[in-house]
Amino acid sequence: MTAEISLWQPIPSQLIIKRSDVHLWALSLTPSSAVVERFRALLNQEEQLRAAKLATQDIAERFIIARASLRLILGRYLQLKPNQILLHYNDQGKPALDSCHQSPLCFNLAHSHNQALLALGCYDELGVDIEYLDPALDYQGILDRYFSALDREGLKRLSPLRRRRGFYRLWTSREAQLKRNGQGLPGLPAFGHADLAPQRYIPLPDGYLGCLAVSSGIKQIQRFRVTESESLFLPGHDHHLRR
Ligand SMILES: CC(C)(COP(=O)(O)OP(=O)(O)OC[C@H]1O[C@@H](n2cnc3c(N)ncnc32)[C@H](O)[C@@H]1OP(=O)(O)O)[C@@H](O)C(=O)NCCC(=O)NCCS
Predict the structure, then answer these.
(1) What is the mean pLDDT of each run of 10 residues along the chain (243 residues)?
(2) 68: left (phi over 0), alpha (psi -120 to 50) or beta
(3) Strand, coil or helix: what is 222?
(4) Which label site among 16, 70, 169, 170 has the fewest CB atoms less than 10 Å from its CB?
(5) Atom of ligand 1 at shortest distance to CA of 116?
(6) CA 232, CA 243: separation in Å to the nearest integer?
(7) How far apart are alpha carbons 123 and 91 in whole angstroms?
(8) What pTM was estimated for this model as a whole?
(9) CB neighbours of 29 closer than 8 A, spacing ≥ 6?
(10) Domains assigned to the chain
């Protein structure tokens, strides 16, 4: 994919997305507990129940921040309050805007540890993944279990120093691809190299790597960085978010 990629920018006051653009939002998921409550209130009942069932408080809080940020951001594009956003899910759980919005906006979200990456585009499905590059991960088991002999051979050719990053490139690429077509990991065994959509690695701060899979017609990728999730509520930006 030869799309131009912007530097990370702060949240713009007006959000307009062109058909040939993708907007990428990097979100920090490390809020104070007061902020978590503010975000929790933006979730619908089903999402709040899901958060309550998650294994640990940390995981639940990250889910709440990511999902509420998704609602806040979609709300800005659609000029709606976060709780007016209706989502529907395909049979593998991929969320999308409900058809009642009559909007061409497509999105995909990924999270890893304290970061999330949200990709938005128009008309064409997209998939995104983000992974924390864990220096201690023993990745050989994952490689043997999930990747083809061709993929493994490719990695072996890299120097040991480059192999870990190579593994994460492979992993984020495959996951972004599978998320683009909405299958998720169950699609992995049948995944062939011929199925690859154009993709772009996204360098991220603080030891994370992202990958975006999207159509070849994309000309520009605009990147926005939200270091404090509270800033999604800034006065002047959130007039249409009040209930
Ligand atoms: C999608 C999937 C690859 C996510 O893997 P992960 O590394 O845990 O998570 P990521 O951070 O990359 O992505 C999670 C986000 O992807 C989105 N997502 C969920 N299912 C998806 C799918 N099938 N395709 C694309 N995106 C999906 C959601 O926005 C989700 O965020 P949420 O958990 O806050 O709702 C994995 O959960 C999967 O394979 N799911 C589909 C199969 C399945 O479990 N189906 C049964 C549920 S109905």
Answers:
(1) 87 90 94 86 97 96 96 94 96 96 97 96 93 93 88 91 93 94 78 77 92 91 90 58 36
(2) alpha
(3) strand
(4) 16
(5) 11
(6) 15
(7) 20
(8) 0.93
(9) 61, 62, 65, 66, 111, 113, 114, 115, 116, 229
(10) 4-233 (3.90.470.20)
